[in-house]
Design a protein that fits this description.
Order of helices and strands: HHHHHHHHHHHHH
Number of helices: 13
Number of domains: 1
Helix content: over 70%
CATH architecture: Up-down Bundle
Structural class: mainly alpha
Radius of gyration: 24 Å
CATH class: Mainly Alpha
Distance between the termini: 70 Å
Number of strands: 0
Strand content: under 5%
Length: 328
């Protein structure tokens, strides 16, 4: 099929769809992560092993959220990047650190919960906060090593304001597809399989053992539900459509068109919006792992109710006319 008969790809879709999503993620993510991190730091002396991973999860989110205002400007200007090539690469690098760092720390949390439930006697006293700090450092290093090659691919083209590619220019798309597939395998598929294995075994143990505390069962099932939501909504669609979109670009470069190219491009842009949501959804782990936060939420709701109860009645008929004139 020739290029002349190719269906037009709606490249303007990203500049229409992504800005409102980024604004929502920035506001909700900054508030939720800031509150969660403040609570963790306030209870630093009570720091548990799993909270070290949660703390690093929050730091990864904050790191990405701070780059969102620049991306908002980029998409509001209809895909014109004005901040230079270096900062474009830094922005995309922060996104990758957040994405694969989040996956890594969620995997660590899953493995820790698995060990605590399936092998509680063996692991008693063997896993310490020092171990969790060392593991967190290793996760950061591994994610950085995986993400570093991405910075060597062209992200902008020319010195004038233009694209800030989330992948790379079409000239290098074949090599980038190979890199992306390998990256997906090691950075997403492997951690995902580990997480599935851990929680699959945990569910079997929880169903078989009657000695496990009911509260612990509920907490484990809640965390499993949160992880299923994060992987199903944020991570799986992004990796599927990212690689499909790269493949369609390779075919287009080889003058082979597919009817599904435009659909895949739009689905990929939607998945980019969904993957950004992980920075706003990750604080759900705080709500699960930190018992103080639900209590704080209840206190805030109680205060709000008390404020509404004590509000004076607003009866416009009892207000003097001269007071109304003064207010106007």
């Amino acid at each position: 099929m020739n290029n002349t008969s190719c269906q037009r790809v709606d490249f303007d879709f990203s500049s229409r769809f992504l800005p409102p999503v980024l604004i929502l993620v920035f506001i909700v993510g900054l508030v939720a992560n800031g509150w969660g991190l403040k609570s963790l730091l306030h209870n630093w002396k009570k720091l548990k092993i799993i909270n070290v991973f949660v703390l690093n999860l929050g730091l990864a989110d904050i790191l990405y959220l701070l780059t969102l205002p620049f991306l908002m400007v980029y998409y509001f200007m209809k895909n014109k990047w004005i901040f230079g090539d270096t900062f474009c690469k830094i922005t995309r690098f922060c996104f990758n650190l957040n994405l694969y760092g989040s996956i890594g720390f969620l995997t660590c949390i899953s493995v820790y919960r698995y060990l605590a439930i399936v092998h509680p006697v063996r692991m008693m006293g063997r896993l310490t906060v020092t171990h969790s700090v060392a593991i967190s450092v290793m996760v950061w290093l591994l994610v950085s090593v995986q993400s570093l090659p991405d910075m060597f691919y062209t992200k902008t083209f020319g010195n004038k304001p233009g694209k800030c590619y989330d992948t790379t220019h079409s000239r290098y798309v074949e090599d980038y597809l190979k890199y992306s597939l390998g990256w997906t395998l090691t950075g997403f598929c492997l951690p995902f399989l580990i997480t599935l294995g851990c929680y699959g075994h945990v569910i079997v143990i929880l169903c078989r053992r009657n000695t496990i505390d009911k509260v612990q069962k509920q907490r484990s099932l809640k965390l499993l539900f949160i992880l299923i939501v994060l992987f199903s909504v944020c991570y799986i669609p992004y990796h599927v459509f990212k690689n499909l979109n790269l493949w369609s670009r390779v075919l287009l470069k080889q003058h082979m068109c597919r009817e599904w190219s435009n659909g895949v491009y739009i689905a990929y842009q939607i998945s980019r919006g969904l993957v950004c949501l992980n920075s706003a959804l990750n604080p759900l782990v705080y709500l699960h792992g930190n018992e103080d936060i639900p209590a704080q939420l209840r206190q805030l709701l109680q205060r709000a109710r008390q404020m509404f109860r004590h509000l004076p009645p607003t009866d416009s008929g009892s207000v003097p006319m001269n007071q109304i004139k003064d207010e106007v």
